[in-house]
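note to self — DONT lose this again. spent like an hour looking for the file last time. sequence + predicted structure for the chain T wanted, 139 res
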Amino acid sequence: MRNNKINILLLCTVITISAVSQEEATGFRAGPNMAATEASLKDGFKLTDKAKEVIGVKTKSIGSKPYSIPNEALVHYGDKVGVYRLRDGWFKLIEVQKTNKDSGTSTISSSDLNEKDQIAIEGVALLRVSEMDIFGGEE
């Protein structure tokens, strides 16, 4: 637990240190010398390998329909439920419909997911914190 707090502090420090100049150009906290290298409202955000390591992000292929995922992969925000999709290096929070929940897994559906996508199954909470920092708050 102590290491997670240190990792969070380290990530926030790295993001904040070089955010000012990058944010002026794009409006987002992303750039070549930052933890988030690119950000786009359409595509999501890209993280460096080091940032993914510090956050503890692990992904898995979503596979074929119906999509069955670990409950830990779900992100609850507002009154919505989503997952972090990884596609072509871009992380994006995708709203999903949860149709079934068993012990340890949930069955989900979304028109924004396909069989080639991966989803984040670990480090999800810190991906959310990172996204909020990159885009400047709650979306």
